[in-house]
Amino acid sequence: MLKKETKIVGIVLSGGKSSRMGQEKGLVKYQGKALIEYAIETLKPLCHEMVISTANDDYSYLGLPMIADEIPDCGPIGGISTCMKAIEADIYLVISCDVPHVPTQLFVDLLAELNGNAIIPIDETGRKQPLVACYASSASAYFHEALETGHLKMMSLLSKIHPLYIEPSIDLDYYKQNLFSNLNSMGDISD
Ligand SMILES: Nc1nc2c(ncn2[C@@H]2O[C@H](COP(=O)(O)OP(=O)(O)OP(=O)(O)O)[C@@H](O)[C@H]2O)c(=O)[nH]1
């Protein structure tokens, strides 16, 4: 059970190169809406503040603070570390900009189980999903160290953070439908 004063900050990752998409991924329309808008709507009900991890001003229409990576081209760890430094929080909810099927309920479940540095869901194929996850402030030092030392592999960072991994609850229907499928190319969008 979270204390009432627990500050939760949402980090929407949108600072990637979008090389497979060929255009800014978060702004690509999917079923009538920009992909990043799904991510924002997923986190919004749970967060006191939200930020977009990006250097691209085209996201300014969303009215959220935008935070450019402290060191460019370091991947998601660089984006998460920079945002954690920029905004203090007790808990950070992280989401990629390209997972429109992730419901708010998944983060409700993660928050309910958080009891350590992090809690990360495992998808239906057994893959860990650290970019749709919940990190306590105690995890931030590990992100900063990874960025400072150039150890930018997420799986090796996780081995230090020791998250709790959970399978999303099976009684919810939407967990059966490719919940974590991310849209990387225009081919994925038209499927
Ligand atoms: N802030 C920040 N976010 C990143 C960075 N690299 C990837 N991301 C984000 O992390 C998430 C997963 O990354 P990818 O699916 O590889 O996205 P991408 O790098 O834009 O796409 P590709 O260039 O096709 O690999 C997306 O939401 C990206 O925007 C980065 O260097 N900085």
Automatic annotation (TrEMBL):
Residue stretches making up the MobA-like NTP transferase domain: 10-152
EC top class named in words: transferase
Range of residues in the leader sequence: none
Keywords, comma-separated and alphabetical: Cytoplasm, GTP-binding, Magnesium, Metal-binding, Molybdenum cofactor biosynthesis, Nucleotide-binding, Nucleotidyltransferase, Transferase
Cell compartments where the protein resides: Cytoplasm
Keyword Magnesium applies: yes
Pfam family, one: NTP_transf_3
Cofactor section: Mg(2+)
Record-listed E.C. numbers: 2.7.7.77
Main location, first listed in the record: cytoplasm
One biological process term in Gene Ontology: Mo-molybdopterin cofactor biosynthetic process
GO CC, alphabetical: cytoplasm
Catalytic activity reported: Mo-molybdopterin + GTP + H(+) = Mo-molybdopterin guanine dinucleotide + diphosphate
Binding residue positions for GTP: L13, S14, G15, K25, D69, D98
Binding site for Mg(2+): D98
Record remark: domains: The N-terminal domain determines nucleotide recognition and specific binding, while the C-terminal domain determines the specific binding to the target protein.
Function as written in the Swiss-Prot or TrEMBL entry: Transfers a GMP moiety from GTP to Mo-molybdopterin (Mo-MPT) cofactor (Moco or molybdenum cofactor) to form Mo-molybdopterin guanine dinucleotide (Mo-MGD) cofactor.
Family recorded in the similarity comment: Belongs to the MobA family.
UniProt protein name: Probable molybdenum cofactor guanylyltransferase
Gene: mobA
